[in-house]
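Project channel, design review

CF: Before we commit to the Marivivens niveibacter constructs, I'd like one complete example in the thread so the newer folks can see what an input/output pair looks like. Taking SAM-dependent methyltransferase.
RD: sounds good, go ahead.
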Amino acid sequence: MSLPPLDWDDRFANADGYLFGTTANYFLTEVAHLLPNHGTALAVADGEGRNGVWLARHGLDVTSVDVSPTAQKRAADLAAEFDVSLNLMIGDAHDWDYPENAFNVVVEVFTQFSNPEQRARKWAGMRRALKPGGTLVIVGYRIEQLNNTSGGPRHPDHLYTADLLKEAFADFTLKRMSQDDLEMAEGAGHAGMSSVIGAVWRKPE
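CF: and here is what came back for SAM-dependent methyltransferase:
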């Protein structure tokens, strides 16, 4: 099932401040020890830059891609506030021209308004972009999120299960997978009880 496309630029433009806050996603910060502190990183559908800025502060040369020009402007402002730089690019995560073997780290956090076909294209691009031996981080809502009102799509095809993620990246080495039910406080867009899954993999050499 496909959901009606969201006008993300309009959603960001009409938000009261940063829609998802200015601090990085909790799971991303928890797995900092699994990430290199130098090299290149791609932040997919990075919105207003909270995760891209965190990666840059971690020591990485970050390319931050998002479909919304408004969000990218705010990402630039946030990067300036923390005295880091981002390579900002406007693009749709489903159809962006992912370069081959270009990044040591690829991060995707809560990009779940992708239907299964779009998700497959996006993940294929992310695979292609990650260097051999590189680290992949994905964070999203589990199907149990349907019981909550804190964010995310309202159709199960757009939500994650452990089996879905394990199957999609079965040829990668799983370094960590965590299923959490917690009170989120990541801006107005992700606030309240949430059912989340996060995973970290290493791409084969």
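RD: helpful, thanks. The chain has six helices and seven strands.
CF: The CA atoms of residues 146 and 154 lie 6 Å apart.
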